[in-house]
């Protein structure tokens, strides 16, 4: 990775791509940011708008609208190009259209001579990430999907309201598909370091109203609830992408739930799904294998089976 000037390309300068760019610029995550979109004028407009932030940010980011050619010396290529699900459509409904877009994106990026790390947000993100891995030929540590990073953040936000604790003092993950079949590994959720299941057992009266299944559903359906009100979602994913990019550049060794290709971890092969992983300058350093309970293992496997069924639709 080129460490003198940190460079990121964002492919897809729509709502998620531009929210991500805004986050990157405000946090000074890289020195050079190129926006690429099939609608080049949109990318030009976003780049102009973002470049006018420079007087009000702590660091300078060179921002411009570019082409795939520019990807050749990028450290990270963020992919947010894709069809946005229409009301009533699931993320998986957009699968075929998304897969076609991904083919053109990956060939454009790889033909440039790109040697960096792919970060994918385009939905259905687990399947798109798998496809990018297959088409790019890059090692699996260098292809990362946002996966259940956003869902895990949503989970922590919901729990923070119930327990009246800062979400950053709550740890735990949604695992599996970024979608309806995701599950929460409750056996590994802690509030202030204390296992949530133990808290619920010890304080039965205080937390009598808590229904864990309903929290899982609220977490999985949070995107839908937002979309019902404002059409779609973008800030959360935009920030998740920026956060992963920052963890890569800073060689943070930060653990977060992302979509990654499993090769024997959790007993799974040839699938890309949401699990906790250690993020470093080389991408995914290691997948964290939680000791799931039998029930959790079976929920996780079911979610992966749903992903596999959809992977078949695009020939995997
Ligand atoms: P959007 O319609 O606002 O933007 C998509 C952009 O992609 C458009 O500007 C479009 O011109 C561009 N595009 C389409 N085909 C392209 C191609 N072949 N090459 C380059 N650019 C191309 O949509 P959005 O709201 O920004 O969402 C983008 C994607 O992110 C969707 O797939 C959406 O489902 C997904 N998303 C993911 C998450 C997550 O948590 N992973 C959350 C929200 C949205």
TrEMBL record:
Catalytic activity: (S)-lactate + NAD(+) = pyruvate + NADH + H(+)
Activation and inhibition: Allosterically activated by fructose 1,6-bisphosphate (FBP).
Binding site for substrate: 91, 123-126, 151-154, 233
Location of the protein in the cell: Cytoplasm
Record's keyword terms, sorted: Allosteric enzyme, Cytoplasm, NAD, Oxidoreductase
GO molecular function: L-lactate dehydrogenase (NAD+) activity
Presence of the UniProt keyword Cytoplasm in the record: yes
Family annotation (CDD domains): HicDH_like (cd05291)
Quaternary structure annotation from Swiss-Prot or TrEMBL: Homotetramer.
PANTHER family attached to this UniProt entry: L-2-HYDROXYCARBOXYLATE DEHYDROGENASE (NAD(P)(+)), L-LACTATE DEHYDROGENASE
Designated name of the protein: L-lactate dehydrogenase
Lineage of the organism: Bacteria, Bacillati, Bacillota, Bacilli, Bacillales
């Amino acid at each position: 990775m080129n460490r003198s000037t940190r460079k990121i390309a964002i492919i897809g300068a729509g709502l998620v791509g531009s929210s991500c760019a805004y986050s990157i610029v405000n946090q000074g995550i890289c020195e050079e940011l190129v926006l690429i979109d099939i609608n080049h004028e949109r990318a030009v407009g976003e780049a102009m708008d973002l470049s006018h932030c420079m007087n009000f940010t702590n660091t300078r980011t060179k921002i411009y609208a570019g082409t795939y050619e520019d990807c050749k010396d990028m450290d990270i290529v963020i992919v947010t190009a894709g069809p946005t699900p229409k009301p009533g459509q699931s993320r998986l409904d957009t699968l075929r259209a998304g897969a076609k877009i991904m083919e053109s994106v990956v060939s454009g990026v790889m033909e440039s001579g790109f040697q960096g790390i792919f970060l994918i947000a385009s939905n259905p993100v687990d399947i798109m990430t798998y496809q990018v891995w297959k088409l790019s030929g890059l090692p699996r540590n260098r292809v990362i999907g946002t996966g259940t990073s956003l869902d895990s953040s949503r989970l922590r936000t919901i729990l923070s309201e119930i327990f009246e604790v800062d979400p950053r003092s709550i740890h735990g993950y949604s695992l599996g598909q970024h979608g309806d079949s995701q599950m929460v590994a409750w056996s590994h959720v802690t509030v202030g370091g204390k296992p949530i299941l133990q808290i619920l057992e010890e304080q039965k009266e205080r937390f009598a109203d808590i229904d864990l299944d309903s929290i899982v559903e609220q977490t999985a359906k949070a995107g839908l609830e937002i979309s019902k009100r404002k059409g779609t979602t973008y800030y959360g994913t935009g920030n998740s992408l920026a956060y992963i990019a920052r963890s890569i550049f800073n060689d943070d060794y930060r653990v977060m739930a992302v979509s990654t290709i499993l090769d024997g971890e959790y007993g799974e092969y040839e699938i890309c799904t949401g699990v906790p992983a250690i993020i470093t300058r080389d991408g995914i350093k290691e997948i964290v294998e939680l000791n799931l309970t039998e029930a959790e293992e079976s929920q996780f496997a079911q979610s992966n089976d749903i992903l596999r069924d959809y992977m078949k639709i695009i020939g995997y």
